[in-house]
Amino acid sequence: MSSISWQNKYFRIVCLAVLGILAAISLVQGVKNALHFSQDLQWDAAKALLLKYDPYDISLSEKGLPVFGEDRGGMALKEFYDSFDAIGAPQKMEANQFPSLLVLLFPLCLFPWGTAKILWLFLNLCFSLGIAILLKKTFFDDWSPHAFCALALLMVAGTPWRNQLGVGQHTLFAFFFFLLAVYLEDNPVWSGLALAVSYFKYTLTAPLALYFLYKRKWKAFSISVAVHIILNLLMSVYTGVPIFAYIIKPLRVSSRLSGEGSIDIGALTGGAGYWVFICLGLALVLLFLAFRLPKGFEREYFSLLLLMSLVLTYHRSYDFFVLAAAAAGVAGLDRDKNPRLLFLCYGLLLLYIFFGLRLFGENNLAMGAAAVLYYGFTVFYAFYFYKRTYSNMSLIEA
Questions:
Q1: pTM, rounded to two decimals
Q2: Is the C or the N end of the chain the one with fewer CB within 10 Å?
């Protein structure tokens, strides 16, 4: 991929200045929201598991939350829910993570909720900076500093990143560790451990993990899976709950959200049972590509995985800040086009997702337009991807 640069110096300065101002405004608002809410951290689910309550039974119960008393330290959970009741935002436990993932939040559970959400905000800001640094060192290493800075500022300025920070979601956390795993891919142990941590948002990073199969990083991938097998077994012993239950229950909680995403396949089909088979078929195609693609398409394959991961499983619009990273593959496929049609379409999609949804509101009409743009672009990207990779595969076979 040729390095991207801007020809007009003054235009470049103006664009960076405007994006910088928008990013600063977004940052301030995101921090305010996070200090007030951060409700998606799942501190309550992790705390319940640490105290040997069953967070999955609580999540699946139709009776609502149990009465948390002083036994086993349950007053901390009571204070958590009371704090949200006090601001008119009552919460329900939604433990859709496996025990091996909730374990990663145990350090935050050593602090009271008020302290934990401040620490989580600080960590998410660090993860955001880390994402920018790692993207530049991996998939964007041949982009000019100005062009990459503009992309990073655009990501922060967009509504998805701001909402991600405000609700205390885990995609920043998971995506940082996935990129760290890519950066450390020549050290299979550390790369595998980083990849294991990244599975906290497995709806995003499980499809992205196919990148390691494409790169033939078998050891790192195996370590990432082994870590969770071991941790789930340990948590089964710790709580006395059968390991089989710890596999089934989180999936049952997750399945209840299958139709509540933004524009993913589950949301568009209303959570109908057949969406699973559609997603499974697409996942098998991505797996096939991991073993079939020739070398040299790291950026393009990564971006395809990223585009598909956001619609294969449940995702809300706040996860779509990662869409900025797909620019690596878009630029790679579109490098020989003048004008760059694919890149132009990608830019329009970014602007709508990052700013248009905020302007028009996330009503059915606005989300419908987002779905048309997103799926249309993804098909367009897949077509370019097929043309470029098929020609290379044909040359190799010849």
A1: 0.96
A2: C
